[in-house]
Amino acid sequence: MTKALYWVRGKVGPPLGIRGRGKGFKSQTQFPFPFPQPEKAHLWVGRLLALLLLVPVPSIGIATQLYILPGFPGHLVALLSKIWLLILPITWLLFIDKENFKFEYPKIRDLLAGVGLGLLMLGIMLIVYWLLGAI
After folding, report:
1. What per-residue string of b and e applies to 28-39 under the rule 16 or more CB within 10 Å gives b?
2. Which of 5, 7, 98, 111 has CA 20 to 30 A from 33's CA?
3. How would you write 3-31 as a 3-class SS string?
4. What distance in Å separates the CA atoms of residue 3 and residue 77, rounded to the nearest whole number?
5. What integer pLDDT is reported at residue 38 of this predicted model?
6. CB atoms inside a 10 Å sphere around CB 21
7. Are 28 and 10 in contact (CB under 8 A)?
């Protein structure tokens, strides 16, 4: 028999008539995995706000540069969007998350993996260029 969980008066727990709090739950107010816990809802709102401030910016910058304002004003908007992509995560880390910068040097294995994958992509691009030619 599988144990289903139900939402009852602000609490998650087993259906009525079954004893126990449900396997793996520390308390009846704890949500199952896919759902955020109510006391941590502000974290989800902050993460969603960060995504909304960051994700559309490159598309807006390129669309402005190519279609909306061609020329110097479009280039300026595209440049400001790239600066925004650099400044927003740093500002968020320092002032919202209140953390310090952490920098670690890459391991030689990671560098070799990057060089290997880069050479593989270069080879694929050269083969496709050689097969299709300059179109």
Report:
1. eebeeeeeeeee
2. 98
3. CCCEEECCEEECCCCCCCCCCCCCCCCCC
4. 55
5. 59
6. 16
7. no
